[in-house]
């Protein structure tokens, strides 16, 4: 199994039959065509990456919402936690951005994202960075800040993600809401965070400046909310 960049790393897979799939991701594999509609064309994922990919219909709707509501003068999108590329691909396919910059710290997952972008025909529209997103924003991308917005789908680790009726964003791991907002807003006030559907609304509201508003949108599939996005800054959602 290879592409023009060579063979896939050992931790990267394309499972063709459920008998090959580890038990803890079998439910995700059954939904593989919702996650990537072109899965059968050779999409790559690490086993851990299955848990973090935004389903393609949701990624497409988010990309549409951002493209239609972005503040004037912002022509660059930074995907701070690119994962296996689902959101970055959707942003590139939207045709809105002069450039999409995608950051991923895991080298094997980044290989997946690059490979998957080729399958979707958008590899030449995305610039990839391997490393810590906060450091890359402060260094390699700092000159793009006046033209950029940030999209971030951070890890949702921590107690209570699946069990609590209201998810405490202060205890989200490895990055709390405070860390995410503080770091990203230093680069751009125009920020979209993709978070658990049960996220604490009061905690989200804490970071809205006085006299301003923020939009919260739930994204659903098959009649159920999968997650929400909070839109900070100058987005104009209708």
Short summary:
The chain is an alpha/beta fold and 238 residues long. It folds into two domains: 2-51, no CATH class; 53-232, Vaccinia Virus protein VP39 (Rossmann fold). The chain contains eight helices and eleven strands.
Describe the structure.
By secondary structure, the protein is an alpha/beta fold. It has two domains: 2-51, no CATH class; 53-232, Vaccinia Virus protein VP39 (Rossmann fold). Helix content is 27%, strand content 21%. The protein has eight helices and eleven strands. The chain has helices at 26-30, 32-35, 56-69, 86-93, 107-119, 133-138, 177-185, 201-205, and strands at residues 2-3, 6-7, 12-13, 45-46, 76-79, 99-104, 126-130, 148-152, 191-195, 215-221, 224-232. It has a seven-stranded mixed β-sheet with strand order 7-6-5-8-9-11-10, with helices on both faces. Helix 3 packs across helix 4 (86-93).
């Amino acid at each position: 199994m290879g592409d023009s960049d060579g063979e896939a790393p050992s931790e990267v897979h394309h499972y063709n039959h459920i008998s090959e799939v580890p038990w803890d991701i079998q439910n995700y594999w059954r939904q593989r065509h919702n996650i990537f509609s072109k899965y059968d064309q050779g999409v790559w994922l690490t086993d851990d990456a299955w848990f973090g990919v935004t389903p393609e219909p949701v990624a497409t709707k988010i990309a549409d919402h951002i493209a239609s509501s972005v503040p004037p003068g912002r022509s660059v999108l930074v995907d701070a936690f690119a994962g296996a590329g689902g959101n970055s691909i959707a942003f590139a396919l939207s045709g809105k951005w002069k450039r999409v910059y995608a950051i991923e710290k895991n080298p094997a997952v980044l290989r997946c994202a690059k490979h998957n972008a080729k399958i979707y025909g958008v590899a030449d529209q995305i610039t990839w960075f391997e490393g810590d997103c906060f450091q890359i924003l402060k260094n390699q991308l700092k000159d793009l800040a006046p033209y950029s917005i940030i999209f971030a789908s951070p890890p949702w680790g921590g107690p209570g993600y699946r069990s609590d009726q209201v998810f405490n964003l202060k205890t989200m791991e490895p990055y709390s809401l405070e860390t995410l907002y503080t770091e990203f807003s230093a680069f751009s006030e125009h920020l979209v965070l993709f978070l658990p559907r049960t996220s604490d609304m009061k905690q989200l509201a804490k970071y809205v400046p006085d006299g301003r508003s923020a939009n919260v949108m739930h994204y659903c599939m098959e009649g159920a909310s999968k997650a929400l996005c909070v839109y900070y800054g100058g987005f104009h959602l209708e």
